[in-house]
Automatic annotation (TrEMBL):
SUPFAM superfamilies: Isocitrate/Isopropylmalate dehydrogenase-like (SSF53659). One of its GO terms (molecular function) is tartrate decarboxylase activity. Residues 5-344 form the Isopropylmalate dehydrogenase-like domain. It holds the Pfam family Iso_dh. The keyword NAD applies. Belongs to the isocitrate and isopropylmalate dehydrogenases family. Keywords: Lyase, Manganese, Metal-binding, NAD, Oxidoreductase. This is Tartrate dehydrogenase/decarboxylase/D-malate dehydrogenase. Its EC number is 1.1.1.83, 1.1.1.93, 4.1.1.73. Its cofactor is Mg(2+); Mn(2+). InterPro entries: ICDH/IPMDH, IsoPropMal-DH-like_dom, TTC_DH. The keyword Manganese applies.
Amino acid sequence: MTTHKIAVIAGDGIGKEVVPAAIECLKRIAELHSLNLEFTYFDWGSDYYAGHGRMMPLDGLEQLSAHEAIFLGAVGSPSVPDAESLWGLLIPIRREFQQYINLRPVKTLDGVKSPLASKEPIDILIVRENNEGEYSEVGGRAYRGLPHETAVQETIFTRLGVSRAAHYAASLASSRKGRLTSATKSNGIIHTMPFWDEVVEETTRLYPDVTLTSELVDALSAHLVLKPWTFDVIVASNLLGDILSDLGSSVTGSIGVAPSANLNPEGDFPSLFEPVHGSAPDIAGKGLANPVGQMWSGAMMLQHLGHPEAAEHLQLAFESVLRDGLGTRDVGGPSSTSEFTAAVLAAIDVIDTIGAMDAT
Ligand code: NAD
Ligand code: IPM
Ligand code: MN
């Protein structure tokens, strides 16, 4: 039996609801596919911060490094400044483990109503550079409280950082429809962007079957709302990719369904799987959270661990419950988080019995 050591951090807010929901489904899938998923639970996050003054222990990254994958809910609470919670947990994990690709699928699902009038299917992969760019540690604040108070943060792009994101995206595009869109802002305003463009163009030239379009991000955002079905793979810097992924998932119907994989493609370090959404303090503890983004991230994790059939089984199960109109309220359905999860568990068993082909 294949064994995989997985670190689980539910984190804050709805992370504590959607992570247990997804773990229940992963456990059932593991039983049916003879996988030994060995989950180790870490109670790190904003509650841990209240007791310890930090988001994770000093040797937290070392503890995580003993795992093959990390399954995370969300980080962020009104009780801890975001700068503390994010730089204290999520960002160090992404950087220490060189998870330089943040892969964020944007796809229409039957049963999830898009706010768009058109019913054309949307199937986009956003490849977000995940380690550098606008999210740099260079900068700070000075003259606090004075009229000349100043905040500065450098944007840092490196040839290595941009080219490896571009390679990943171009190779994905080459295995799909061959269309790569690069989000840019190089019309003379942002000095770092012509460098991004140059490296993306140079890299994409190595993929003759890929057509690259560099699109200014403001126009691209409009395009993403007006005709999202025309996109295939989008490559974007850290901040632009962050914004485009919330926009993209909302265009398909809800941010609650969007998954993400923070990948170290070389496999030297654990990769991290988490939904695109945050801790949603406005709905936390009310049973309203949509666990699909977390479940789908779980399916991406199974795929990454080398179990495509198990991944597909889980994916078919939550998709069939959505198709039956039994989604959570954010997608117009009647279910609570736990009702939806129970329906997915039942669908996992049905698919196991009747076979995947008949479930589609
Ligand atoms: P959010 O994604 O938490 O919520 C935005 C809106 O979407 C809210 O109205 C929320 O109720 C809704 N929503 C989000 N996920 C949902 C789900 N699964 N089901 C139903 N509705 C859902 O963004 P925010 O409110 O801007 O941020 C809240 C906190 O989360 C902040 O502290 C932020 O820094 C943090 N955050 C963390 C991550 C992460 O851990 N990766 C990602 C984004 C935001
Ligand atoms: C995300 C989040 C994070 C990001 C925040 C919470 C730092 O918005 O994962 O999309 O911007 O990367
Ligand atoms: Mn985000």
